Amino acid sequence: MRPGGDAVTLPQRRVTNRASNAMARKQLVEAVAYFRTSSATNVGADKDSEKRQRAAIEAFAKRAGYVLVDTFYDADVRGSDPVDVRPGFAAMLDRIAGNGLRTIIVETANRFSRDLIVQETGHRFLKDQGITLIAADSPETFVEDTPTSDMLRQILGAVSQFEKASLVAKLKGARERKMKEQAAAGEKVKCGGRSYRELNGAMVDLARKLHRYPVNGRRRSLREVSAGLAEAGHCAVSGKPFGAEAIKRMVRQ
Asked: Taking 70 as the threshold, does the pLDDT of residue 25 lie above it?
C-alpha cells in the first residue's frame, strides 16, 4: 500500500493474456482428417486430390475450433466401397478406439462416399459408435439429425451418385466412339490410359514369366503371381499387392 492507505494495482495484462491463450488451446476439439481418392491416376505427389482435400479440411478446422491430430488416406479406393473394407478408414477407427477422440472431418460428403447406401450406412455406423462426421464444405450435413437434414443428406448423396453414373456413361460412350474410329481407319484399337506394359514393362515381363512357368508341376494362380510381384517390389499405387483382374490384364499383354 502507498503511504496514506491507497492500494497499489499490479499490471495483470500479460498474465491474463497467457491464461486466455491457454484456455483457448484447451477449448480446441481434437479431430482426425480423412481423405479419399477414387482413381490411381489422381494419386501422387504431383496430383491435386489429396492437396485440395487437405487444404479445405485444415482451413475449416482452423475456422471452427478444431485441431487435427492425425490424417488418414484411402488412395485408389472407390466411393462405392463399404467403409469397413477401406484400409485407411480401418486404421482411422483403430486410432480413434485408442483415445477419447470422436470427430472425423472430410472435405465433402462425397469424399466419405458417393454411393447413397454406403454413405447412409457408414454415417449410421459412426453415429452408433459416438463418432461425429463433419463435411468441411457443409458442416451440418452429417451433424443435424432431423427429418429435413436426413432428406437433404440423402438428396445430396443421390445427386452425387447420379453425377458419377452420368460421367461413367459419357466416358464409356467416348471410348466406344474412339474405338470405332480407330477400327474404321485400320489402326490398332486402343482407348483409355496407359497399359501396364507402358507403365512398367519389366513388371509385366516378370508377371508373364511367373504365370507361364509352373512350380512343382502346377501353374501359379493369379494371386500367387501377385504375391511374386510384391516380393519383387511391384505393388499397386495403394501399396497393396495387385488384384487378380490386374494380373490377368498383365499376363495378356
From this structure: no
Spatial contact of 36 and 82, defined as CB atoms under 8 Å apart: no
Identify the bridge partners of residue 135 per DSSP, sorted by sequence position: 106, 138
Bridge partners for 103 per DSSP: 132
Question: Would you call 127 exposed, middle or buried from its count of C-beta atoms within 10 A (0-12, 13-18, 19+)?
Answer: middle
Residue 223 in 3-state DSSP? helix
pLDDT score of 183: 66
Contacts of 195 (CB under 8 A, 6+ apart): 249, 253
CB distance 76 to 105 below 8 Å:
no
Q: What is the pLDDT of residues 162-179, one digit of tens each?
A: 777 776 777 677 667 766
Q: How far is CA 70 from the centre of its chain?
A: 14
Tell me the pairing of strands 29-37 and 103-106. parallel
| pLDDT at position 74 | 92
Hey, how many other C-beta atoms are within 10 angstroms of the C-beta on 236? 17
Q: What is the pTM of this model?
A: 0.51
Q: What is the mean pLDDT of residues 218-239?
A: 87
In this structure, what C-alpha cell is assigned to residue 88?
485407411
Contact 43, 75 (CB under 8 A): yes
| DSSP state letter for 29 | E
Q: Which residue has the cell 486430390?
A: 49
Tell me, rounded to whole angstroms, the distance of Cα 251 from its chain centroid. 30
SS3 of 165-206: HHHHHHHHHHHHHHHHHHHHCCCCCCCCCCCHHHHCHHHHHH
